[in-house]
Amino acid sequence: MCVLGNRLLKDIKIEDCYYNSTELRRGFCNATGHCESYYATHEVRNVTGIRGLSSGVFM
Questions:
Q1: How many domains are contained in the chain?
Q2: CA distance 54 to 24
């Protein structure tokens, strides 16, 4: 799962989870290259997990 800072990026279809990927830059930066402050100040990383597991549905 792709994470920006402590936010799970679940609503964006992401093929490549890295800071300068086209999908992420398109979602967080404008055409002139100015990016949202949260995107500019936090790192992007892959984390291992199962989506929805903490929701309690599987218990």
A1: 1
A2: 25
Query: Is residue 21 assigned to a domain?
Result: yes
Tell me if 57 is assigned to some domain: no
Joined tokens for residue 54? 């903490």
Q: What would the two tokens of residue 6 be?
A: 């402590």
Cα(59)–Cα(44) distance, integer angstroms: 30
pLDDT band at 59 (very low <50, low <70, confident <90, very high): low
The helix or strand, by DSSP H or E, that contains position 39, with its residue range, turns out to be helix 37-41
- Whether 54 maps to a domain, the answer reads no
Q: Note if the pTM is more than 0.90.
A: no
Report yes or no: 24 and 34 within 8 Å, Cβ to Cβ. Answer: no
What 3 state SS string does 2-18 have? EEECCEECCCCCCCCCC
What is the identity of the amino acid at 9?
A: L
